[in-house]
Design goal:
With 249 residues, this protein is of the alpha/beta class. The protein contains 8 helices and 9 strands.
Length: 249
């Protein structure tokens, strides 16, 4: 029996022009947090693909059966599918979706990358050891990391708990992403919130330091982690669209 998809968490595809944009959501979230950005790209005439990553947008139990290999494979497959419709592709991602966008840029010929509060590195051995100890003691989930939004009245559609096994897999995956950041030669737009309670700003610093292509960093002053639905939503969207237009000109 297929687990029902949460309302609004369905994948999104728009057939537009021959330039495309792949949009990737974050860890324990789903396409709802990225749909407004995807729809802005669609309205501008791009072909747009926003997949629902495996284990997301349904139940925590579903997510606990998936790992980084599933999420990264889905992101690469989505790029490959979009590339059959488009001659040029820009990829955009939030949080883990930013890490996946970086992975796609490391392995596919993208024309630009929009990275919104991206996770591209492990937080370090101390936290990893703490996670391992929790798992060894029988703890399977911790509190939700979702809905880090400053805007009053806005709540992200995300899971009410965070599966620890998935976190361990995520951190292992982004270690590999970090090790290969130097292979990203496409232009990058890095969008960073000054105050982010989920992903630390040194993730963005790593991108600035290691990517080989040109990178521009935009700081957000009035949003937390899920900036795509926060107070700076319009700035995020307009900046991403201007960046795409520039790199695809």
């Amino acid at each position: 029996m297929t687990t029902p998809i949460l309302a609004g968490a369905e994948p999104y595809f728009h057939q537009g022009g021959t330039d495309g944009v792949l949009v990737l959501h974050g860890f324990t979230g789903n396409p709802t947090s990225m749909r407004p950005l995807a729809e802005r790209f669609a309205a501008a005439g791009y072909s747009v693909m926003l997949p629902r990553l495996p284990g997301h947008g349904t139940t925590v139990a579903d997510m606990m059966t998936t790992n980084w290999d599933d999420w990264s494979s889905a992101a690469l497959a989505a790029y490959d599918e979009l590339a059959t419709h488009c001659s040029r592709v820009v990829v955009a991602g939030l949080s883990m979706g930013g890490g996946l966008a970086a992975l796609v840029a490391e392995r596919r010929p993208v024309f630009g990358v929009v990275l919104i509060n991206p996770l591209v590195k492990s937080p370090g051995a101390e936290l990893e050891e703490g996670l391992a100890q929790l798992i060894d003691s029988g703890v399977e989930t911790i509190d939700s990391i979702g809905s880090d939004v400053k805007k009053e009245g806005v709540v992200e559609s995300s899971y009410p708990a965070t599966p620890l096994g998935c976190v361990v897999s995520l951190f292992a995956g982004v270690k590999e992403v970090e090790a290969n950041l130097h292979s990203i030669s496409a232009p990058c737009l890095l969008i960073s919130s000054r105050e982010d309670h989920v992903v630390t700003s040194d993730n963005g610093d790593a991108l600035v330091e290691h990517v080989s292509g040109p990178i521009e960093r935009l700081w957000l002053e009035n949003s937390y982690h899920v900036a795509t639905i926060d107070n700076d939503q319009e700035l995020v969207e307009s900046s991403a669209l201007a960046f795409a237009a520039k790199v695809l000109a």
